[in-house]
Amino acid sequence: MLHLSPRALKRTLWSCVAFTLLDSLPAFAQQTITPLANAGPGTADTLEEISVSATGVPTPISQTGSSVTVLSAETLEQQQRRTVSDALQQVPGLNIVQNGGPGGQTSVFIRGANPNHTKVLIDGIDASDPSNANGAIDFAHLLTDDLARIEVLRGPQSGLYGADAIGGVVSFTTKRGEGPTKIAARVEGGSYGTFNQSSRLSGSQDGFDYSVSVAHFRAAATPVTPLDLVPPSGLRRPNYYDNETVSAKLGYQVTDEFRINSTTRFSNATLRFNTDDYSLFPAPVQFGTLRNQQGNQQLFSRNEAEWTPVAGFRNVFAVNYSNLFNRNTGDIYNPLSMLPTDSTGERLRYEYRGDYLLSPGNLILFGAQRDEERLSTFDPNPFGTGESKARKGNTAGYIEAQLTPFDRAALVANLRHDENDAFGPATTFRVAPSYVLPFSETRLKGSVGSGFKTPTLYQLYLNIPTIGQIANPNLRPEESLGYDAAFEQPLGERVLVGATYYHNDYRNLIQTEFLPGFQYRWVNVGRAESYGAEAFASVKFTDTLSGRLDYTNTVTKDEVSNLELLRRPRHKGSATALWTPMPGLTLSGTLVVIGPFVDGNRDFSVPRLKNPGFTTINLAVNYDIDETVSVFGRVDNLFDRRYENPTGYLGPGLAVYGGVRVSTF
Asked: What region holds the TonB-dependent receptor-like beta-barrel domain (predicted)?
């Protein structure tokens, strides 16, 4: 199996960039949409926004029945959200769980689904981690500096996206160069030893466009262990996190009919954190006493050729590659501690996608994919697992129709068939209609679809005798069936309100089965359901002041135990506001309210307890001194609320940040 060290990964990145510049190799994953001007959070222009993830091609949200939220680069900059996990906090129907501050393991729950039930795409590249036991990506290491937009698509989406899209899809699109050459740079500092920098070179000329971004994020001292868990006379060491992310998106319009593109993204992150000491058992656990370190490198690359032989008929041929490397070192200040362990997950995808415009408002999309996943782990310690390797593949084909059956109506329907080398076939679908009533302009929409999640390589093939783990190659995919129904109602020209009801059923969920002799394996025994409602009100009070309110109600149940699922708050609310009192000055505010939820304590010796939830308020201000220089500042957790999410891990308290941004024009 291919293994790339951090240095080799960096060489790979720069060689990809140089080779593309010299030879114009094929390019990026999916067409980038320019963010709408002046479409900040809370405007009443929601129906005019564009979504790519909902259908696979740029489509006005008003022409889809899907529940989708779009966060533009402008919104991210106004709110000064530097990490994806911070940016996603405000999205309805979605819950973020992060082990402490920046860099702590971060999971996303969409409409009550498990974290590994979310498909994550970066410029169309599947970002899930084949080396992870449950296959999910850790959102902690994703920065926002190079992002043009984030789309969150809720509900089962396997009919278009295949495996993992049970709860929904989170899609990231990086920035594309346009116009004259521009250089921009930003520096900021603040609480918890934060010192961040970023720069970007972008532009286009003679058919060639380019965008190269470099970002460095550091939070050197974030307290994570709650004071009531610090052992007597124990040290309370804060978390240290450092992240370097480099990305390049390049494209060349060879002829009017033929275009080649390339996108590459590499991140190198280090997290130092404290774990718990169980060595004195049966004495009480010493929480947060062992200093550990995690190294994480992620490489994502896509090369693409786009051919449009006739108007309205577009063909895309692409190759994707991802490599996610993790190194874990325990008790780093103890010279007698265990040796580091490594894991590497790789994915290679060959892809064809075509779309044909039958007539205005009527389009057929179709495609085929071949994926190959590899897993490699290495534990050199005495009585360790040694080296383990596994691989599997999947072949898929799909078709989608976007139709306008009559005036004011739209319909999107897709069907997909997957053939997995490990467990065989899976067929999924999705249908999403939308209709705008005359006179009242009420928009009615809905969707119904199925989803599936493949067993991971870890679950299928890894036997680890030292911890009693037994592989189960007979595992079947997890499955879901879900639907939603919604309306959106404009009230005049400045107000838009709406609500959505959703319901999802999950079957064949993979859970742990304990066996005699202190052994365990994974089996398909789980069943669960989730249902609830999402509601919003978007108001443009004046030409300079706008706001938005969102509320999510989520009810979950494990149908085997008849208990509520962990870490799914029943109530979540958020409010955003944007005010531009004078040209060049922008103020924004974000409030997030998380209601009580069920969780276990830090070591799960108490498997179920009630977490009271929390409320945070963030404020940000941006001021353009002139066309080339801007200053900014923000306050996070304004009232210094102490909260734990998950239980046993302290969220960041009051924090103040500020900095300056410069550009060539």
From this structure: 192-638
